[in-house]
Specification:
It contains three helices and no strands. The chain has 88 residues and is mainly α. It has two domains: 57 residues; 30 residues. Helix 1 packs across helix 2. The chain is extended, with a radius of gyration of 21 Å.
Length: 88
């Protein structure tokens, strides 16, 4: 990370720390943990945004979610050249 850093002490189960250390690679455990915490902060922020949007506009139905997934899948297939769309 190119941002200023600080030292923090955390407590975690031994097996979690050992497993993380094996996955951390050359960047080291601190960078691995920092990246994971950053991802969790992004998820927490997204969750708060979704809750605010649902409070204002109502929840999105499963049918709406599936429809958007289908549209995204179709668009990706079109971009990848797996399908051709002819517009008339």
């Amino acid at each position: 990370m190119s941002e200023p850093t600080g030292e923090y002490a955390i407590t975690t189960p031994h097996h979690v720390a050992e497993t993380a250390a094996t996955h951390s690679g050359p960047s080291g455990l601190s960078a691995y943990v920092a990246a994971d915490v950053a991802r969790q902060v992004e998820r927490d922020n997204l969750s708060a945004l979704i809750q605010a949007a649902e409070a204002e506009h109502g929840a999105v139905s499963d049918k709406e979610v599936q429809s958007l997934r289908d549209q995204l899948r179709h668009a990706r297939a079109e971009q990848d050249g797996r399908i051709t769309v002819i517009k008339v």
